[in-house]
Predict the 3D structure of the following.
Amino acid sequence: MNISKRHPLLLGGSIAIAIFSGSVAAQDLGQLKGIMGGSNIGGAASSLGSLSSITAGSTGNAAGVIEFCVKNNYLGGENASSASSVKDQLMGKLAGSEEQPAQNNPDYISGASGILTGSGGQSVDLSMAGLKAKAIKKVCNKILDQAKSML
């Protein structure tokens, strides 16, 4: 008898979680739109439109995003072989003292966890469920190109 009373609660809880997850994904897609300068993202983020304005806001964030992209296999082919080298060179620019190594840079840490922060302070989580792998690969390649110009 208790089981039949719990079942509606579990169903209701599952529905609430699904609705909440959808609203979080929509917020993240809005954040990506802001970083990209207002480009049309589309309902499922399958089309990112123009990527010409997407950039990392700092050297540390670019290095971290590259780390995230390499770790998750979003950079392929020729880019995969050069990405680690570019990241290491950026980390050399970030190198502080022994007490504050580059790996402890907050921008690097957020980038390595998949948080791309634009120069205006907007951020988007590249690991969110609403983004397609193809879109993330485009963003990763764009950030890698930007990082090469920072060297």
Observations:
- The chain has five helices and two strands.
- The radius of gyration is 19 Å.
- Confidence is low (pLDDT under 50) at residues 1-27, 35-50.
